Automatic annotation (TrEMBL):
Pfam family, one: DHquinase_I
Coiled coil: none
Keyword terms, alphabetized: Amino-acid biosynthesis, Aromatic amino acid biosynthesis, Lyase, Schiff base
Gene name of the encoded protein: aroD
Listed name of the protein: 3-dehydroquinate dehydratase
DNA damage keyword on record: no
InterPro entries reported in the protein's UniProt record: 3-dehydroquinate_DH_AS, Aldolase_TIM, DHquinase_I, Type-I_3-dehydroquinase
Active site: H143 (proton donor/acceptor), K170 (schiff-base intermediate with substrate)
GO BP terms in the entry: 3,4-dihydroxybenzoate biosynthetic process; amino acid biosynthetic process; aromatic amino acid family biosynthetic process; chorismate biosynthetic process
Length: 253
């Protein structure tokens, strides 16, 4: 089992790491958010760039990334453009999606980039190669905002991400019943016990899925997303409660 270290944060050992999304729409709002996050007890920041009004302007994106980096020099930054079909704010052409991610990888202003599993294998491989050359980690992911696929399907998607050489593999699914939450946890546990050779991140979204955002150390999820100012997905718990609960669980494991 390989761990992944970014700055001074190691994923894949100990308690799950806390990642807080930044969802500002303007450069000004993002800088305010970054300053506010300086005093929050978190491990990683995710810039959800699909919320940013100027996301189609590469120069503007890079300029803001520079400002965020300067404000938070020690904090690992995950760069995420979440597509509309996977629950994000907007759609861009696939070619631009990769251009945006590859520009950010080459800028080395971020530590990790999020790449969605179903964007096309060839461009994914190209981006992963580029990320390796630039010492940027790839969090590959898949979301289902409507339902929870069968356990075998969840395991198979996570294994596929490993085959594609992602550094970290992530899946977020929506439960329609408590059984669905158990399905996600069962798939996570099976990954941990039988397949995973790198950190994986899983969550069951919405209210009934909250338990999955807390129990990562028990079942095998290396990171959990918590809300500081505004949640970026349904079911995210506030960062402060998250740290308390993760610590309690860590002490008992
Ligand atoms: O992929 C994820 C997980 C997430 O959707 C969640 O459910 O916490 C939140 C997103 O911001 C992030 O990119």
């Amino acid at each position: 089992m390989k761990t992944v270290t970014v700055k001074n944060v190691t994923l894949g050992e100990g308690a799950p790491k806390i990642c807080v999304p930044m969802v500002g729409k303007t450069a000004e709002a993002l800088c305010e958010e970054a300053k506010m996050l300086l005093s929050v007890d978190l491990d990683i920041i995710e810039w959800r760039v699909d919320f940013f009004e100027q996301v189609t302007d590469l120069v503007a994106v890079e300029a803001v990334a520079k400002e965020i980096r300067a404000l938070l020099p020690e904090t690992p930054i995950l760069f995420t453009f979440r597509t509309k079909k996977e629950g994000g704010e907007r759609e861009v052409p696939t070619a631009y999606y990769f251009e945006l991610n590859q520009t950010m990888i080459q800028s080395q202003l971020v530590d990790l980039v999020d790449i969605e599993l179903f964007m096309g294998d060839e461009q994914i491989s190209e981006s992963i190669q580029l990320a390796k050359e630039n010492a940027v980690k790839v969090v590959m992911c898949n979301h289902d905002f409507d339902k929870t696929p069968a356990k075998e399907e969840i395991v198979s998607r996570l294994c596929r991400m490993q085959t594609l050489q992602a550094d970290i593999c992530k899946i977020a699914v929506m439960p329609q019943s408590t059984q669905d939450v158990l399905t996600l946890l069962d798939a996570t546990n099976t990954m941990k016990e039988q397949h995973a050779n790198r950190p994986i991140i899983t969550m069951s979204m919405g209210g009934i899925g909250v338990i999955s955002r807390l129990a990562g150390e028990t079942f095998g999820s290396a990171m959990t997303f918590g809300a500081a100012k505004q949640a970026s997905a349904p079911g995210q718990v506030s960062v402060n409660s998250l740290r308390t609960i993760l610590d309690v669980l860590h002490e008992s494991v």
